[in-house]
Design goal:
The chain is an alpha/beta fold. It contains 10 helices and 9 strands. Helix 6 packs across helix 7 and helix 9 packs antiparallel against helix 10. Bound molecules: pantoate. Pantoate binds next to strand 2 and helix 6.
Length: about 280
């Protein structure tokens, strides 16, 4: 596996592969890799000749007071895992390499509306940071396909919309969420949970499953349903940020006739903000 830190050296590999007519997959990550990331890599391996994984903790997607400085950085372990997964190239740029114009003062990419709802309300600027870095990574690697986890459902839709509206010739592939045996969605931030919080954390997925069950049994008063579930989560020790039933294709409010739904939740357990979602058809 090659490890590259500059766009110039990354491109020399990409050019060779392109000349050989090879099909290239990109898996963007912020490192601290777990089985969720490895599922993206495994899927990429199946679909492409070459797999590029980027490891970059993107300052532009963290707000003031968020965990940019303390975000777990485990490059040695990540390198080992990516070598084992037969990745062709790991791209690990410095901040200045990707943000030559400055993190907050340079050119950016904004996907309006979709970025301002749900997580965008409590994390203003977050999706602008994601859309900007993913556009940069797309331009650096120029992959045929790029893979993202369904765990970050809103991020996935923001990236799909951005790719379509900027006419980028890249297919976005969604990979299902990988869960612990008790249902907790894998996330680097799970490491912040205390033992007691870790014990409670699976209740979030159970709440989503309960909502889905009620909707599949005919419940159509989504507002009342999610208020009840939010109140149950509060009693269990969570501080819910939102729990919402939305259209699965664009996160708009559903009507009673909407067939494809997603239920999304974000809640704090102590200092840790957890997100999860479940999508299904009626
Ligand atoms: O999902 C993530 O890890 C990040 O938001 C991403 C897509 C790598 C952009 O920094």
């Amino acid at each position: 596996m090659y490890t590259e830190h500059t766009i110039l050296s990354l491109r020399s590999h990409i050019q060779q592969w392109r000349r050989a007519g090879e099909y290239i997959a990109l898996v963007p990550t912020m490192g601290n890799l777990h089985a969720g990331h490895l599922a993206l890599v495994e899927q990429a391996r199946k679909l492409a000749d070459r797999v590029v994984v980027t490891v970059f903790v993107n300052p532009a997607q963290f707000g003031a007071g968020e965990d940019f400085l303390s975000y777990p950085r485990t490059l040695e372990q990540d390198t080992h895992l990516l070598m084992q997964s037969e990745v062709d190239l790991m791209f690990v740029p410095e901040v200045e390499e990707l943000y030559p114009g400055g993190v907050n003062s340079g050119t950016y990419v904004d996907v309006p509306d979709l970025s301002e709802t749900l997580c965008g309300v409590s994390r203003p600027g977050h999706f602008r940071g994601v859309a900007t870095v993913v556009t940069k990574l797309f331009n650096c690697v120029q992959p045929d396909i790029a893979l993202f986890g369904e765990k970050d459902y809103q991020q996935l839709l923001v990236i799909r919309k951005m790719t379509a509206e900027l006419c980028l010739p890249i297919e976005i592939i969604a990979v299902p969420t990988v869960r612990e045996a008790d249902g907790l969605a894998l996330s680097s931030r799970n490491a912040y949970l205390t033992d007691e919080q870790r014990r409670l954390a699976p209740l979030l997925y159970q709440a989503l499953q309960l909502c889905r069950k009620q909707i599949l049994s005919g419940e159509r008063n989504y507002g009342a349903l999610v208020s009840q579930v939010a109140s149950d989560l509060r009693s269990a020790g969570f501080e819910p940020d939102y729990i919402e039933v939305r259209r699965a294709d664009n996160l708009a409010e559903p009507t009673i006739d909407t067939q494809k739904l997603v239920i999304l939740v974000a809640a704090r357990l102590g200092q840790t903000r957890l997100i999860d979602n479940i999508n299904f058809s009626l």
